[in-house]
Amino acid sequence: MANMRELIRVLKRQEPGRPVLFEPVVSRPLHERLVWRSGATPWQDSLAAAQVVIDSSRICGLDTAALSFGRIEGGLCLDPPLLARAPSMLPPGMGILDMGPGGLLTLPPGSHEAFLSYYDQVLPLSPLCACLVRDITGHTPSDPEQATLLETYRILCQKLHAQGKYAIYSAGYDFPQALGLALEAGFDAIRYQPSPLSFEDCWREYHSRIALLGGLSCGFLSTAKPLAIHARCDALMALTGGKAMALGSDNLHGRDIPYLGFISLTGYVERHTR
């Protein structure tokens, strides 16, 4: 059963009562297979699509549903029906993980005011647990861009923390550089991406300052047998006790992970939730 308090414990760098799964980016075919609905109808509008995401999140044992409430295209475009209806669509215990309009590196230049305005509209949602900022283009920020990111993201983190919400960073560029930005801006967690610093070493060095989410690569989940996936989860839990760590993949763009690998990961969490 979903319980966003378990994810909150991870984001507060505490030890949760069970393994926590953090998997915010799931491919459309995998969503459809999980909920046994396919075709155009489940995705016909934002409310229908949100229901698919919520239902598959419940089936997977996720504590939050990953939803976005707007975009920035020549200005801020919000989705008022989804903002109004989303809280009542959630099952008991589940929170909202806001996926935002994209990180600043993915948006048109000069979007920082619209970017912050988006969060001013979303933060009052009572079941909102955390916001995921996604700079997933793979573009490494220049020094001026880095300064703008740091200034804007620091303001965002302060806004979130003032409302009792949490900030998570996900980046497709050099992971050590992204980690440094996340630490300096005040993010509560970062999604791990493959780098010379292993997940285990990164957790050992930084878990007192920031939570680390991931630890299982898409390549591993695509090729490993279920027992190997469970053994990897066991090893991560033995190292961390779940403190400041959630299990998940490094999937940035909705890569279609094979069904068997995905349900092996979700099944591990389900087995330890009973």
Structure described in brief:
The protein is built from eleven helices and nine strands. It is an alpha/beta fold and 274 residues long.
Question: What labels would you give this structure?
Answer:
7-stranded parallel sheet; 15% strand; alpha/beta; globular; 274 residues; two-stranded antiparallel ribbon
What is the CA-atom radius of gyration, in angstroms?
18 Å
Helix content: 40-55%
Distance between the termini: 9 Å
Strand content: 5-15%
Low-confidence parts: none
What structural class results from the helix and strand content? alpha/beta
Shape: globular
| Main sheet: strand order | 1-4-5-6-7-8-9
Biggest sheet descriptor: 7 strands, parallel
Number of strands: 9
The run of helices and strands is HHHEEEHEHEHEHEHEHHEH
Number of helices: 11
What is the arithmetic mean of pLDDT? Answer: 95
Provide an overview of this structure.
By secondary structure, the chain is α/β, with parallel strands linked by helices. The chain contains 11 helices and 9 strands. It has helices at 4-11, 28-35, 46-60, 80-89, 112-122, 143-162, 175-185, 199-206, 218-223, 226-240, 259-271; strands at 64-67, 70-72, 76-78, 95-98, 128-135, 166-171, 189-191, 211-215, 245-248. The protein has a 7-stranded parallel beta sheet, with helices on both faces. The longest helix has 20 residues, at 143-162. It is globular.
